[in-house]
Amino acid sequence: MNKIRKTPKKVTITITLILVSIFLLACTSEIKTTISESRDNNKSKTPDEQVWDMALEIYEGLKNKDKEKIKSVFSENELMNHSRKIDNKIDEVFDFIDGEIVTYKEVNGSCGGGKARDGEWVEESFVGYIYGIKTDTGREYTISYGGYLVDKDDTDNIGVSDFRITEKQPDSDESILVGTVD
Question: What distances in angstroms separate CA 57 from CA 53, 73, 80, 130, 153, one per listed residue?
C-alpha cells in the first residue's frame, strides 16, 4: 500500500517540475526587438534599410496616434530611464501636429559612424529624416531621429535615442524633442 502512494507523488512531482520548466523556458525565450523585428531578421536588410524602417514605424505611429508603435523603436535604455518623459513628449507631438497626417515625401538616413575594434563595429550610430510630412490642414513637418544600430558593450542602447519634429514655416522653427540626445 505504501508503494502505491509513493509512485503517484513521484509522478505528480515530476510532472509539476516538467510543467514549471516548460513555463520558465517559454518566459525566457523573449527576444529583444527593434523596429518590431528581431536583429536576426534584419540581417538580410542593409543598415540603411533598417534605419528607414525605423522612420516608417515613427511615421505610422504618428499618423495613427499609436504611442506604443512609436515607443517600439526606442532603445531599451531610453524606455527604462525616460519612459514617463517620452510618453509626455509623444502626447505633446500629437497635440503639436495640426490636423491628420496624410502623406510624407521622403525617408532618408544612414549609419554615420561609431567605434570599430579589430575591423568590426562595436558601436555604430545612425541618423535619419522624414521629409515633407503633410496634414489635411496643409501643414508640413520634418522629423529627424538618431540612435544606435550596434552597441556591443550595451545592447540595450540599440534603437532610437531621440527624434525631433519641426514644423516647416518661414517665420518659425518650433520643434519638439522626444527622447534624449547624448
Answer: 6, 7, 20, 11, 26
Q: What is the pLDDT of residues 135-146, one digit of tens each?
A: 999 999 999 999
Closest CA to 73 of 55, 89, 88: 55
172 CB-contact burial (10 Å; exposed 0-12 / middle 13-18 / buried 19+): exposed
The CA-based diameter of the chain, rounded to the nearest angstrom, is: 92
What is the bridge-based pairing of β-strands 120-135 and 175-179?
unpaired
Cell of 54: 525605423
pTM for this predicted structure: 0.72
For residues 51 and 147, give the distance between their C-alpha atoms in angstroms, rounded to a whole number.
9
Cell triple for 130: 522624414
- At 152 the three-state DSSP class reads coil
Confidence of residue 164 (pLDDT cuts 50, 70, 90): very high
Give the gyration radius of the chain's Cα atoms.
Answer: 23
144 touches 129 (CB < 8 A): yes
Of the listed ranges 8-12, 66-70, 157-161, 170-174, the least confidently predicted one is 8-12
